[in-house]
Amino acid sequence: MRTGAGVTASLKGGGRRADERRVSRDDPTEPRRADEVVAAVADDEEARPLIETLLLAGLGPSTRPGLNGTVEVTVVAGQGGRARAALEGPESAPAPFADVTPEISDPDDGAGRPRYSMLRVLLLFAVAMVGLPVLAFYISYRVSGG
């Protein structure tokens, strides 16, 4: 642990900051890209099926403008192999959730009347809000000796 003059010297600029380091000839002049291009298509409409396929494969694709007016579909660096494998998959395979249809429950019990009639609901409400408190009062009145 540094104390005293060493701390103040480092606060006053005694050391180099990370963005002030010297650049050598071996350093690349272009910054590294954080994503890999997996496909280049003419426009966003052609990129949409590719993006959907990559999303279903669990990858997070993005698009960016490419050379000559193309659109590049990209994924995070290191996931290019998985993305290309997903895009080269069998074309005839259906989408994973294409055959799933939501089931809507029918409130009809088959006899032509609704399963829960409004009268039944109102009767249950009346018993819960009126009948049970009256019964509880009567029982407590009898137990107390009244």
Description:
The chain is of the alpha+beta class and 146 residues long. Among the domains are: 59 residues, Hypothetical protein rpa1041 (Alpha-Beta Plaits); 30 residues. It contains four helices and three strands, in the order H-E-H-E-E-H-H. It has a three-stranded antiparallel β-sheet with strand order 1-3-2, with helices on one face. Strand 2 and strand 3 form a beta hairpin. The longest helix has 26 residues. The protein is elongated and about 100 Å long. The termini are far apart. About 4% of the residues have low confidence.
Question: What's the layout of helices and strands?
Answer:
Layout: H1 5-11, E1 35-41, H2 44-56, E2 62-65, E3 71-76, H3 80-87, H4 118-143
Antiparallel strand pairs: 1-3, 2-3
